[in-house]
Recover the amino acids of this structure.
């Protein structure tokens, strides 16, 4: 059963009431059909799904938001709680159901359902449990929204993005994992904090696996357009490679630390995914490090693998992968990250 918006509280006569409430204007032009109606579906209304849903609402990214979860009572509770904020938010139709028909005609389907890490547990540990769930989630999503973009967030995100690609039958440019967009934000925050500047002025990418083998691209760090490492070298200012490694280690440890402290991560992934939704649906053509079909880029040739690369995102999904200059060491680490993912993937039987 689909749970709809609050207009149902006017009873079956709700529509009649609306019709008699407004006196129609005379000779009005028909509504413009040029503005696109945008629909986003979020599967999984746990900590992550709800952080994403509320960021989507506050940032006015969709005309319609559909929520799906396997727990109907919690789902209805979350839907109502969001609907009750209608007076404070841009107008968005919110519906919810355990039945995937609620997602029909979505432009973007975001998957956050599944098990999350316990303190100390790695993302890869979630693999078997979450792969099994995807078989129930991806085929109905793909059936109801065959032209949508799939954005996978559940962990281990790179492997689950690959499995979702296989299960959906979608072209690879329309299957994306949130990947290291979050890790890169953590990286930018730590660099900004270190140098006492605004993280939005720090450009820096983490690529590869969203996990323990991620790769920090030191050569990409720039602040206000100034490439940091080459600036330091030109000015003959010494820096410790260990300092850089420590910052990367802090990025890798970030999720573990937050999970130890509060049990899960949510706010940063909420903003990260909303930013991706904006770039995709508003055709922003921005570059984000996200999990994409990586075979053929940067010498990755061991198999069909999804991992994060700086990708150009727009209404068509992944428009391309940026050809940035990597050092030999960075290319080697990226290939190793791909191999780690492939080793596990090859045992999945997909
Ligand atoms: N890629 C990333 O950067 C991040 C990924 N995550 C991942 O997101 C996932 C969700 O994390 P949380 O929201 O904290 O977990 P949670 O336990 O709070 O929520 C998971 C939700 O999935 C629902 N669910 C389970 N099976 C389902 C099914 N078959 N169909 C529909 N819904 C189903 C549950 O009812 C629950 O509401 C985890 O895998 C976590 O590791 C979390 C943070 C960041
Ligand atoms: C849980 C997770 O993947 C993260 O916060 O990075």
């Amino acid at each position: 059963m689909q749970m709809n918006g609050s207009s149902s509280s006017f009873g079956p006569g709700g529509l009649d009431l609306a019709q008699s409430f407004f006196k129609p204007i005379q000779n009005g032009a028909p509504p413009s059909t040029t503005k696109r109606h945008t629909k986003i579906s979020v599967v999984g209304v746990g900590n992550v799904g709800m952080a994403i849903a509320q960021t989507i609402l506050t940032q006015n990214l969709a005309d319609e938001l559909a929520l799906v979860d396997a727990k109907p009572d919690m789902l209805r509770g979350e839907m109502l709680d969001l609907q009750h904020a209608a007076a404070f938010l841009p107008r968005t139709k919110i519906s919810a159901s355990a039945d995937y028909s609620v997602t029909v005609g979505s432009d973007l389907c975001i998957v956050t359902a599944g098990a999350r890490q316990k303190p100390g547990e790695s993302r890869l540990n979630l693999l078997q449990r979450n792969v099994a769930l995807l078989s129930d989630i991806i085929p109905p999503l793909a059936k109801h929204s065959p032209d949508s973009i799939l954005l996978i967030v559940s962990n281990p995100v790179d492997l689950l993005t690959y499995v979702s690609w296989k299960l959906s039958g979608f072209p690879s440019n329309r299957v994306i994992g949130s990947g290291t967009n979050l890790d890169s934000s953590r990286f930018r925050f730590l660099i900004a904090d270190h140098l006492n500047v605004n993280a939005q002025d720090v450009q820096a990418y983490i690529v590869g696996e969203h996990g323990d083998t991620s790769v920090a691209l030191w050569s990409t760090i720039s602040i206000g357009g100034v490439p940091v490492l080459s600036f330091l070298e030109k000015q003959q200012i010494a820096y410790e490679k260990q300092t850089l490694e420590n910052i990367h280690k802090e990025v890798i440890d970030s999720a573990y630390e937050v999970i130890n402290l509060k049990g899960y991560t949510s706010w940063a992934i909420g903003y990260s995914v909303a930013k991706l939704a904006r770039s995709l649906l508003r055709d922003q053509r921005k570059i984000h490090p996200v999990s994409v079909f990586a075979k053929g880029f940067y010498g990755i040739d061991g198999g069909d693998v999804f991992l994060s690369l700086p990708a150009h995102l727009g209404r068509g999904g992944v428009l391309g992968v940026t050809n940035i200059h990597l050092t030999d060491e960075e290319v080697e680490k990226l290939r190793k990250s791909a191999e780690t993912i492939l080793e596990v993937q090859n045992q999945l039987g997909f």
Residues 123, 155, 182, 255, 265, 269 surround pyruvic acid (ligand 2) (CB under 6 Å).
